[in-house]
Amino acid sequence: MTALQQTPTIDVDKLMAFVFKAVDEVGATLNTALVVLGDKLGYYTTMAAGPVTPARLAEATGTGEPYAREWLAAQAAGGYVDYEATTGRYTLPPEQAAALTDPSSPAYLPGFFQIALGTVHDIDGVLEAARSQAGVGWHEHHADVHDGCERFFRTMYNAHLVGEWLPALDGVIDKLERGAKVADVGCGHGASTVIMAQAFPNSTFTGYDYHQASIETARRRAAAAGVQDRVNFQVGSATEFPGAGFDLVTTFDALHDMGDPVGAARHVREAVGAEGTWMIVEPMAGDTVSDNLNPVGRAYYGFSTLLCTPSSLAQDVGLALGTQAGPARIRDVVTAGGFTRFASVAQTPFNRVLEVRP
Question: Rounded distance, CA 74 to CA 250, Å?
């Protein structure tokens, strides 16, 4: 005789708590698009100058008043702006203004929303890839992924790279000031490369990325910054980029995206000098799932599922480290590639900086 399966008892209070949590999640999902809309239409920058009504915001930005009206109400409901019922005016608090309108602020967030929106935009391709156990290449994603990635990470590089991360590496600042040979592998639009070149005019920098469109953008960024005399950008993969005898190799927020990170580590080991350094900057993560069950980990696991893991699976080997690989897994990768020294030397809430030596 087969025992009858018992129907679990539903706690109605817990059920409804989850339902309202889900409602909040849907509102947050829609708000990602609303923040990108507000950023691209100039709503936030207009509000940074002072309180607005829907009519005033629409007039100042050359947009339709119904859009401004509903956007403002949604932003007020989400706590992004303040609403004064007696005057019908909306105010962007100074803290939100710093995070949403000031590119020099270490808390500047529009790029984070932009890359998230671009990532979600490509869900159909990820669905098909998951079903066919394939991947989705970085080059196949919406432009908001590429542009948002640069904007988001450039904020952190501006805030930490020269003042904190590079000084945490043994002897690297002295080499850069005297004149070092540097390779920035997986450079994307070149934000990290340009920042280093601006800070260390005696050194030379070569940025490598497999994505031709990103390299073209990086070249424009270098010209606009006036550092093209000491910066060169080339199309090249992490396992095959040319050059040798580099004093410093850097890889920013890219190792976990690679199909063959062990092969990349092996190639970097061949390219870096005997006294050279490989600086790896990876998303902040611990070594276990339990370590990463927090808001930052949640966001990064989301990016890992929809963006970073599909990117790795689209390449040869397809190791799929995942965005939350953690330092122990990265240590295994670089050790397999021939490096012997490994240390976590700096961190922020979003990044961990690793020093790897021969």
Answer: 41
Do 84 and 31 share a structural domain?
yes
Name every residue whose Cβ is closer than 8 Å to that of residue 106 and which is 6 or more positions away in sequence: 155, 156, 158, 159, 160
- pTM metric for this prediction: 0.91
Q: Evaluate whether 215 touches 235 at the Cβ level (below 8 Å).
A: yes
Q: What percent of the chain has pLDDT over 90?
A: 96
Q: Is residue 277 part of a domain?
A: yes
**293 and 151 belong to one structural domain:** yes
SS3 100: helix
List the structure tokens of 17: 């708590």
Residues 154 and 289 in one domain: yes
Indicate the residue among 78, 101, 124 that finishes a domain: 101
Express each pLDDT in 29-56 by its tens digit: 999 999 999 999 999 999 999 999 999 9
How far is it, in rounded angstroms, from Cα 184 to Cα 243? Answer: 12
Q: How far apart are CA 207 and CA 196, in angstroms?
A: 11
Q: Tell me, yes or no, whether 139 and 27 share the same domain.
A: no
Instruction: Looking at the structure, tell me whether residues 123 and 64 fall in a common domain.
Output: no
Kind of pairing between the strands at 246-252 and 272-283: parallel
Quote the number of domains for the chain.
2
The β-bridge partners of 354 are 280, 344
Segment 237-279, tens digit of pLDDT: 999 999 999 999 999 999 999 999 999 999 999 999 899 999 9
Task: Quote the crossing angle between the two packed helices 143-160 and 110-121, to the nearest 10°.
Answer: 150
Whether residue 2 lies inside any domain: the answer is no
Could you give the CA distance from residue 277 to residue 341 in angstroms, rounded to a whole number?
A: 10
Which pLDDT score is estimated for 130? Answer: 96
Q: 294-300, long-range: CB within 8 Å, 24+ apart, which pairs? A: 296/349, 296/350, 297/324, 299/116, 300/324
**DSSP 3-state of 134:** coil
The whole-angstrom separation of Cα 294 and Cα 307 is 19
Q: Could you list the residue range(s) of the whole structural domain that residue 168 is in?
A: 112-357
| Together in a domain, 143 and 195 | yes
- In sequence order, what are the beta bridge partners of 353? 281, 346
